[in-house]
Amino acid sequence: MFEGIGDIGYAFADNVGGLVLANESGEAQRYDSLGNPLWGSAPIIYQIDPDNSYFENFWGDNNGGIIATFWTTSHGLSVQHTGRYGQPGIVPVTEPEKALPLGFELGQNYPNPFNPLTHIEFGLSHRSDVRLKLYNILGREIATLVDQIVAPGRWSAEWDATGFPSGVYFYRLQLDGDRVQTKKMMILR
Question: Final residue of a domain: which of 70, 92, 114?
Fold first, then answer.
């Protein structure tokens, strides 16, 4: 009787006498009290990054539609509302570029190898005293890109390596004087 959405992972009453079924892939279908589909086809719940999306929950919206929450590793938590006639809409809970990291993160510089410009991204979950320093292969400090109190969020620093020879270099992010992460990068002329 209930076809079109594959293995059912979620089922709930739609509060108007029908039933909504959904699967782990994010497909959903609403049926009336006699089991007739009310949407033209099983709409796919919007996924920004389908290979890395994880559905959290589905709920009825008390008007024949559904609300789904899902997490994507690249875009954070999002919520989708699908109306009683299957029209999808989405509301991101956090915009990925504004989402706060859970701790502190130091990204790999890009491009890498580079000549002469590279970018180093880092993320902070709380206001911190940040030092982002560069070192040569011998461990000598060659530049300081950041040395200040920084608000929580995601940030990027640029390094212009004009005048520096080809080779391996290191960059080190230090927070509040004690938490440290280090990564390597390469200038290739």
Answer: 92
Among the three residues 61, 92, 123, which one is the final residue of a domain in this structure?
A: 92
DSSP label of 114: B
22 CB neighbour count, 10 Å cutoff: 23
Asked, for residue 55, whether it belongs to a domain, the answer is yes
Distance spanning both ends of the chain, measured CA to CA? 66
Q: Do 168 and 110 fall within a single domain?
A: yes
3-class state of residue 50 by DSSP: helix
Q: Cα(94)–Cα(113) distance, rounded to whole angstroms?
A: 32
How many angstroms separate the CA atoms of 107 and 155, rounded? 10
Measured distance CA(139)–CA(126) in Å, rounded:
29
Query: Residues 86-115: pLDDT tens digits?
Result: 666 655 555 555 556 667 889 999 999 999
Question: Could you read off the pLDDT of 52-80 as tens digits, one per residue?
Answer: 666 666 666 666 667 777 666 556 666 77
